[in-house]
Every structure is written in C-alpha cells, then in structure tokens.
C-alpha cells in the first residue's frame, strides 16, 4: 500500500471520531514511522511494508482514544527544536514561545544566570541556553520523571556544562540570586480541569495543570519566593492563563514588583508578564 492511501485511511478514521486535526495527525504519525520529514512524505509516493502499516494502525488507534500525537511519537517541536516528551510533562505550547523572545532581547549582551521553575520538558530553559551562549541556568521541578525528560533534552542539545536540573520545590531554593526567574506554572482553576478537552484532561499530568481554586496557588508561591532570590534589577517572567492578568498584577504589587512588559497571545489575551522589584 502506498503512503497517500495510508494517510487517507488514518485521516478518515480520525475524522469519523471528530478529531479536527485528522489529516495532519495521520501525516505526522506516518512520517514518524517511516523516519522521514512530513514535507518529504507529502512530495514522494512510496510503498509501505506490512510491518510499518501495522504499526501505523496501532498508533492511529491510540490517537482515536484522544491521546495527543506528541505523546504517541514522543516528540514536540518548540522554537525549531524537537523535544522529547511523554505524559510525565506538559506538551510544549506555541504560546510559551512568547516568553523567550523578550528574554533573548533583554539579555543578549549580558552574562545571564537564571532559574526556570517547573522545568517540565526543559523547553524554556534549554531554548534560552541555546540562544544565549553566555547564559547559565538551573531548572527545578517537583516531579522526578519530568526532570528525567529534561535531562534527555539537555543531552540532545549538548549544553550540559551550562545547566543544572534539580528535583525540588521552589521553597527549597536558597543562597543563590538570579538575573532572571522564568516560570510557566500550573494556572488552570481546579474546577475547570474537567472541562478541558479529552486529550488534555485524560493524558496530560494534572499536577502541571492544577493551579488550585482560583488558578493562582503556584503563581503566588513563585512571586513570593522570587522577592528573596532575584538580583537587584532582576526580572520575573511569568506565563499566565486567560483572564488572570489583573489578579496576577495585584499579587505582584503586593509583593513589591512592578510590571514593565506584558505580551498578548494569538487570541489577544495577556499571556506573559515581565516584572521587576520596585
């Protein structure tokens, strides 16, 4: 059977299950099995072995149960790099890339020492290290398996000598001061988790989503702790959820921070807040 036929079979099965991304999902899964880029897959027609066809059908069956494609192929692109991902860490989102560009611009000509709180796959931390050669970073997470994932990605990017990954909560960070603290913390309101799409609520780690009764439990901890571990003129960069801007601004002010930049996402919601101690 040829590649185009197989893509159509997968796409049709997923479409019948009301999966909107049916075509692209089918293409990504087949390109993963055949170890070719999606672009190459689409411009060349090839016969597929029975073994690869069986594997394709198995992976499509996982997608039919709403499992995210990133977990099926253990890979997600973030800032043009492929990051290893499994269900021990959140799948990197395009919105999170909005945190990176301002950081690169601000610290381009400086020796940056930073902390990434809730490192997950390491996509934020490792993107900064890759793009700023004079930077050093520490990533922390309370989940050992998430730290293992970040270590896999660290190894791949070959920047081990400038990075440290630690399994610890934020309140156990002492005796160090950072130029930058960056975090994409859990910010989903607890009661809203069951309203998320099946691919998120059934497969992504709840501890990385659950922000408590108002979605801001971890945000508060990050802001409070940052007072004592940020250098003078240091920057706190946070990703936040939709509709949380004014609440987070209030918490920042209560803890002695002032906003100097906010960034909106593709739906015009404030997604990132950059602040300094006033």
What does this structure look like?
- There is one protein chain.
- It contains 11 helices and 9 strands.
- α7 links the parallel β3 and β4.
- The longest helix has 15 residues.
- The N and C termini lie far apart (65 Å).
- It is of the alpha/beta class.
- α1 runs parallel beside α4 and α2 runs antiparallel to α4.
- It has 2 domains: 63 residues, Helicase, Ruva Protein, domain 3 (Orthogonal Bundle); 200 residues, Rossmann fold (3-Layer(aba) Sandwich), CATH 3.40.50.150.
- The strands form 2 sheets. A 7-stranded mixed sheet has the order 5-4-3-6-7-9-8, with helices on both faces. A two-stranded antiparallel sheet has the order 1-2.
Annotation keywords:
two-stranded antiparallel sheet, Helicase, Ruva Protein, domain 3, Rossmann fold, seven-stranded mixed sheet, 11 helices, alpha/beta, 278 residues, 9 strands
Distance between the termini: 65 Å
User: Rg, please?
Assistant: 20 Å
Number of helices: 11
Structural class by sheet pairing and helices:
alpha/beta
Strand arrangement within the widest β-sheet reads 5-4-3-6-7-9-8
Q: What fraction, in percent, of the residue positions are helical? A: 25-40%
The CATH topology of the largest domain turns out to be: Rossmann fold
- CATH level 1 name of the largest domain: Alpha Beta
Report the mean per-residue pLDDT as an integer: 95
How is the biggest beta sheet arranged? 7 strands, mixed
Count the beta strands.
9
The ordered H/E elements are: HHHHHEEHEHEHEEHHEHEE
Number of domains: 2
CATH architecture of the largest domain: 3-Layer(aba) Sandwich
Approximate shape: globular
What percent strand? 15-25%
């Amino acid at each position: 059977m040829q590649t185009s036929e197989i893509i159509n079979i997968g796409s049709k099965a997923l479409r019948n299950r009301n999966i909107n991304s049916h075509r692209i999902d089918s293409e990504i899964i087949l390109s993963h099995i055949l170890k070719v880029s999606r672009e190459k897959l689409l411009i060349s027609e090839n016969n597929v072995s029975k073994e690869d066809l069986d594997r394709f059908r198995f992976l499509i069956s996982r997608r039919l149960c709403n499992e995210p494609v990133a977990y099926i192929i253990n890979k997600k692109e973030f800032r043009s790099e492929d990051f290893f991902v499994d269900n021990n860490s959140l799948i990197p989102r395009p919105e999170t890339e909005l945190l990176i560009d301002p950081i690169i611009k601000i610290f381009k000509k400086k020796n940056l020492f930073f902390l990434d709180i809730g490192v997950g796959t390491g996509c934020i931390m490792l993107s900064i290290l890759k793009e700023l050669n004079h930077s050093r970073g520490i990533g922390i997470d309370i989940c050992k398996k998430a730290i293992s994932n970040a270590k896999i990605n660290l190894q791949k990017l070959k920047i081990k000598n400038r990075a440290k990954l630690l399994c610890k909560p934020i309140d156990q960070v002492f005796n160090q001061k950072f130029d930058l603290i960056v975090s994409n913390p859990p910010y989903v309101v607890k009661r809203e988790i069951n309203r998320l799409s099946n691919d998120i609520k059934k497969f992504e780690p709840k501890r990385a989503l659950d922000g408590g009764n108002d979605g801001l439990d971890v945000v508060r901890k990050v802001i409070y702790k940052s007072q004592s571990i940020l250098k003078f003129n240091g920057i706190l960069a946070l990703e936040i959820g939709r509709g949380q801007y004014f609440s987070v601004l209030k918490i920042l002010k209560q803890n002695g921070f002032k906003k100097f930049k906010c960034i909106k996402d593709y739906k015009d919601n404030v997604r990132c807040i950059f602040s300094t101690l006033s």
